[in-house]
Amino acid sequence: MKIKVVRDILEANQRIASENREIFTRHGVFVINLMSSPGAGKTTLLERTIESLKDTIPIGVIEGDIRSSIDAERIDKLGVPVVQINTDGACHLDGNMVRECLGELDLSSLRLLFVENVGNLVCPAEFKIGEDHKVMILSVTEGDDKPSKYPLMFRESSVLLINKIDLLPYIECDLERIKSSARDINPGLEIFEISCKTGEGLDRWYRWIKENLSS
Ligand code: MG
Ligand code: ZN
């Protein structure tokens, strides 16, 4: 019985996510669903990315958090449209939450929409929201065993950004182990090693965005 309920929820979400996708496609908006555990650097990555690309690409952001508008305020300072979703306890975004805030964005003026999911390495990967791609961030401080322990997010993502590589000299983290176990789970996964603090590696991420926008 419980299994049936869960399946019905996922099917209902799938339908709404497909409708969202049609809305985004009609407006020519490319959507990235950004996922990670709390503190891996989602909002900081968005700040860097927006600073670098906003002059050439019209960008908007949906911020998902259980509570607060701290992240939305950070994005708002950069002068791009941002909407905050507070899930009020829910640990992931779903298609319906994203749908309900679309009226607050002028989609026809956007080309790229980032949806920052709730910080959580588990269920954001289970829910589509109408995105073109799921992208995940893993901080090297989280440990090199995370692909093996949380395979679904690595399987569902198109890109893995390994962040905070500037900290590698100070911690025990086997970068090759992360990359090989992630590729075992998802052979097509694009992997970029980055530091949002120093800017290292971010050019490849920006290039991935531009290539996917133009294809
Ligand atoms: Mg954040
Ligand atoms: Zn959840």
Mean pLDDT: 96
Rg over CA atoms: 17 Å
Strand content: 15-25%
Oligomer state equals single chain
- Ranges where pLDDT stays below 50 over 5 or more residues in a row are none
By helix and strand content, what is the structural category? Answer: alpha/beta
In total, the number of strands is 7
Walk across the major sheet and give the strand order: 3-2-4-1-5-6-7
Percent of residues in helices comes to 25-40%
* Distinct ligands: magnesium ion, zinc ion
Number of alpha- plus pi-helical segments: 8
The SSE string, one letter per element, is: HEHEHEHEEHHEHEH
The CA-CA distance between the termini, in Å, is 44 Å
User: Tell me about the biggest sheet?
Assistant: 7 strands, parallel
Characterize the structure shown.
The protein has helices at 2-26, 42-53, 70-76, 95-101, 146-149, 151-156, 175-185, 202-214, and strands spanning 30-35, 59-65, 82-86, 112-116, 133-139, 159-163, 190-193. The chain has 215 residues and is of the alpha/beta class. The chain has a 7-stranded parallel sheet, sandwiched between helices. The mean pLDDT is 96. Magnesium ion is lined by residues 42-43, 71, 116. Magnesium ion (MG) binds next to helix 2.
